[in-house]
């Protein structure tokens, strides 16, 4: 019997491996979904691929699943980071969810000169990334980093990581995303509602790794820009082709 429910767990997954359930997972499986002993569940932990498991103990506050066989190997996304300036809560949640679905390897919220929010709930955003992977059949979960200053991140920018700098000041100019960048580590940078400051723009244009990109003739909202830029990158250089 194949499993209809997919869960992300922290536990290692291997043949015959018992997997203890958290209180929340037990509530979901046995309270909400009304599963009983013997029911199949698909498990993944972001490292060991996807596994078919069966319920062996079902309780109100806990329970156990036992892994049977791997159903899919681990599928890693391309080495793509998404850097974005957090905006309003629902739109930030949307960016994290879509980045996880579309194949980002790491998600890095950054504080730019015109970023409004000073804090994020990293744990909540990480939970959104996990939920997105559960829903879309992913076997990998991108790490959501804590909020950090863009300037500090650029101070230590890896020499080989290419940067797709989505600059609203380039709106309308031709798209530039060279295919020789294939097989290199990359990052995409999306700015906040207020866009980039002139100082940031100057620094980003001067970076050797920077590829300045237009997302068309219209100014997009940051959440739309995140999805549009990931689509372009995945199509040109990622694992969609
Ligand atoms: N307030 C800014 C303005 O009016 O110019 C717009 C900022 S836009 C809402 C947020 C971010 O989305 C920008 O910083 C940029 O990274 C990206 N973006 C939006 N439209 C773009 C475009 N046409 N070309 C390149 N980047 C774009």
How is the CATH topology of the largest domain named?
Answer: Alpha/beta knot
Nearest-angstrom radius of gyration? Answer: 20 Å
Give the class-level CATH name of the largest domain. Alpha Beta
Bound molecules: S-adenosylmethionine
CATH superfamily of the largest domain: SPOUT methyltransferase, trefoil knot domain
Number of strands: 12
Counting helices, strands and paired strands, the structural category is alpha/beta
- Please tell me the total number of domains: 2
Helix count from the secondary structure assignment: 6
Binned strand content: 15-25%
How far apart lie the N and C ends? 33 Å
Fraction of helical residues: 25-40%
| Largest β sheet strand count, sense and barrel closure | 7 strands, parallel
Net shape: elongated
What CATH architecture label of the largest domain applies?
3-Layer(aba) Sandwich
Taking all residues together, what is the mean pLDDT? 94
Reading the helices and strands in chain order gives EEHEEEEHEHEEHEEHEH
Low-confidence stretches: none
Subcellular location: Cytoplasm
Main location: cytoplasm
Family: Belongs to the RNA methyltransferase RsmE family.
Protein name: Ribosomal RNA small subunit methyltransferase E
